[in-house]
Amino acid sequence: MTIAGEPPAPRKLKMKLEIRGVSKTFQSKRGILTAFEPIDLDIREGEFVCLLGPSGCGKSTLLNIIAGLDKPTRGEVRVDGRVITRAGTERVMIFQNAALFPWLNVFDNVKFGLNMIGVAKPERQVIARRYLQMVHLAEFERAFVHELSGGMKQRVAIARALALDPAILLMDEPFGALDAQTRDVLHDELQTIWANTRKTIVFVTHNVREAVVLGDRVIVLSARPARIKQEFGIDLPRPRQIESYAVVDRARAISALLKDDTRASQRDVAASVLQELEAQMVGDDVL
Ligand code: ADP
Ligand code: MG
To answer: What is the distance between the alpha carbons of residues 233 and 257, in angstroms, rounded to a whole number?
Structure first.
């Protein structure tokens, strides 16, 4: 009850996703490997957040934990205030390789997940067609995966994910293997899809400009063991283009911050390759 004359209590900003003290260590042959130190991050409903960091810093691991495909060593992830313990259709992942079923055509690929969650056949067809239209593939519903370009495969993967109507889309470098022109088109399309569906999106990339084009917020992670180094709010008008002056300008400031970590990360990768080789040579009695 509100007492007359008293200002209403401030409403708490609605958080879709809360990452609380999440850390991850792996037990490897070379001992314990810390992917990232405790991370705290809140993501609002409908927000487009880009996680940006050098290769090997732990981006995919963090996304897998949010998806419920991996477990944190410490900490917890909450969706709508509830701690997640496993994967669920309200959080759908899109990978760099579209991971489509080669024996199914485009239409059946998009319908597959709907079938799994028990959506009736007529409804499956309506939903699949709606999202294939959204990604401009309506004319290709009978095509097979091997007949599609890389960009088309990713569009099918996006349609398949959207068909499940997840609240949160988790995207792990989804455009990383595409040529620059196709990637630019998909940046446009993803911005339109996001504007029309208002999904919460967590998008992982190591490409600074891509992060600036897409994100409301860019979270910069350090080299492994990753921690949040800095956050950047990106308030540029949309749709944004990767070559626009404003995007290039914002990206420049973020790149400077990343440079040292990229070097550290490359040293880390080189050191682990050498250690692996050494272990192998000792095993083979070469050393
Ligand atoms: P990114 O996606 O940022 O490139 P990853 O999350 O894939 O990085 O990996 C982070 C670090 O954790 C890397 O050093 C990687 O080798 C290590 N790692 C990832 N998964 C495993 C695993 N299952 N076992 C051991 N180490 C792993
Ligand atoms: Mg990765």
So the answer is: 15
- The residue whose C-alpha atom lies closest to atom 10 belonging to ligand 1 is 58
Amino acid (one-letter) located at 76:
E
Q: Which atom of ligand 1 is nearest to the CA of 172?
A: 2
* Rounded CA separation 64/118 (Å): 25
Question: For the purposes of burial, counting CB atoms within 10 Å of the CB of 210, is it exposed (0-12), middle (13-18) or buried (19 or more)?
Answer: buried
CA distance 278 to 275: 5
Tell whether the model's pLDDT for residue 1 goes beyond 60.
no
**Is the predicted pLDDT of residue 27 greater than 80, yes or no?**
yes
At 63, phi and psi to the nearest 5?
Answer: -65, -40
d(CA 35, ligand 1 centre) in Å: 6
Q: How far apart are CA 241 and CA 183, in angstroms?
A: 11
Averaged pLDDT of the chain = 90
Give dist(CA 224, CA 34) in Å, integer: 7
125 and 138 Cβ atoms separated by less than 8 Å:
no
44 and 233 in contact (C-beta within 8 Å)? no
The partner residues of 219 in beta bridges, in order of sequence, read: 51, 231
The two three-digit tokens of residue 247, written as one number: 């995007």
Q: Edge-to-edge strand order for the sheet containing 31-44?
A: 31-44, 15-28, 74-79, 82-83
DSSP β-bridge partners for residue 171? 94, 203
State the pTM of this model.
0.89
Judge if the beta carbon of residue 275 lies within 6 A of ligand 1: no
The burial of 28, by beta-carbon neighbours within 10 Å (0-12 exposed, 13-18 middle, 19 or more buried), is given as exposed
Distance 23 CA to ligand 1 centre (A): 13
User: Of 222, 196, 106, 227, which Cα lies nearest the Cα of 157?
Assistant: 106
